[in-house]
């Protein structure tokens, strides 16, 4: 599965959040595509990029309940009607669409009665409408609230969750999570081969052993449930 | 009451709809403010303009379920947090906020199950959220669907409804409508003074007479209802 991250931020070098996410994205095999850096937008080329990827992510900070103008410019130029739904080619259908949004407000304000008085899903509805039009599958929005207040552990958790959002198979089930972590461990440990990292192998083997134990446990529970149902 | 119409359209001269609306706006005492024509955005000046007006209208064609990038640029620059809700000055509070949106799709497609599968209100939620944040009063959205298919009579109706949206007192009650039409008649007929337009006066007097008849009728109905309730 190939992932394209379409990032919009007018001052990306000054954004701690975006720089942090960039580090995470670099560890994954994804295409990072910053729209404000495109000096001469080639619509055909952008459309090729969309066609080549299976998961399309819009990533941006929330400015007045929407993406910055840069993403709207990209949308209005690249997403021609024919490309999205007009010519029957179904260029985007069955691809996955997700949003990574950051906000300086606490998440709890995004609800009826909160200071923002609107939910994240309501804010994203216009983007979901594009995805619906293109017959894409919509992923749950990945919201990053108040990155600046996160401690190191929270940031590490964010990094892993973000990486999973970029490349883990959807839906986010236990088995899909396990498969993603196992793959990640194996890939990372390859890099330690020169130094003969025995610890790494122990971690990976322990992980696999635990996963197998869990599967065994699940089977046992299923058998008990079956017995109860009869 | 002073009205500011903030218009966003990247090719306004080629837009039949916008040119038509411009003719209507010219007949009203409103400020027409086309954001794509602003070459050097002066944030302080724009904020003065907002402060000076009582009704703020965003007017734009629907591009991918939102305004064109030009309006987003204006929003992100002009609507500083302090200005909208930060400094306790309540610069915009109790002003009226309305949207005039045009679309090439039939109105019936904007509902669950329609080809757009999203309502106009859902599309506008991010703009309403700004208005809520600024403690503004939200007017019902004025939607223009498929202007290009309207016949002359439908266009005339649109023109009047649009003008009422710009300057008529809210809410859109019978008495507010009557007051608006009476004022419009009087204003327009002044222009005919030189030619001594007796027909104009007859129209105006008939209109006033009908309005008085209607008020009388309403009083009678109220009395009957009162009798029934006792």
From TrEMBL, chains A, B:
Domain Flavodoxin-like fold: 1-157
Highest taxon, organism lineage: Bacteria
Pfam families, A to Z: Flavodoxin_2
UniProt KW GTP-binding keyword: no
Coiled coil segments of this chain: none
This protein's UniProt keywords: Oxidoreductase
Keyword Oxidoreductase: yes
Protein name: Flavodoxin family protein
Provenance organism: Companilactobacillus zhachilii
Gene Ontology molecular function terms on file: electron transfer activity; FMN binding; NAD(P)H dehydrogenase (quinone) activity
Signal peptide, first to last residue: none
